[in-house]
Specification:
Layout (H helix, E strand, L loop, with lengths): L1 H17 L16 E3 L16 E4 L3 E6 L2 E8 L4 E8 L5 E10 L4 E2 L5 E3 L4 E7 L7 E8 L5
Antiparallel strand pairs: 1-2, 2-10, 3-4, 4-5, 5-9, 6-7, 6-8, 6-10
Length: 148
């Protein structure tokens, strides 16, 4: 019995450790999330309002939430673009919703045009990254006036 349980525990331990790996070239990591903090700041840390500062690897899928808007975004290499969705999870419309992506090379993609998301509504998001070479990216939802 011990001979069977020991490999099972070893496999589980290794799988758990893999969730704590460092996904960025700089060696910074976040527990179990496949991304790391960039220090750009987010809400309460500098940068633009709504920026989480989370860095995603090229193959990662971002999941971000802000003020009732859920964002899911991924990079698609063959088309050199980012695709995803924003969804209003509240019972009221949310105006002036847009998405912005920051690449490790300093390029900013977006923001997308402002949209109003009705209660429970979902909108597709596509941002072109053709010709861009980057190691990681970050994304955030912006809501409200874009006067800043």
């Amino acid at each position: 019995m011990k001979k069977i349980l020991m490999p099972v525990f070893l496999i589980l331990a290794l799988a758990a450790c893999d969730n704590f790996r460092s996904p960025t070239e700089g060696g910074e990591g976040a527990e179990g999330s496949g991304h790391s903090e960039s220090g750009e700041g987010g809400e309460g840390g500098g940068g633009e309002p709504g920026e989480s500062g989370t860095r995603y690897n090229v193959g990662d899928t971002a999941h971000e939430s802000r003020q009732g808007v859920d964002l899911v975004m991924s990079h698609y290499g063959p088309g050199d673009r980012f695709e995803g969705t924003v969804m209003n999870t509240t019972g009221s419309p949310i105006s002036n919703v847009r998405v912005e992506i920051h690449l490790s090379n300093g390029t900013e993609l977006g923001p997308t045009p402002n949209v109003t998301l009705g209660a429970g509504a979902m909108q597709e998001v596509v941002l072109d990254a053709a010709g861009e070479s980057f190691a990681w990216w970050s994304v955030h939802v912006e809501i409200g006036s874009s006067d800043s």
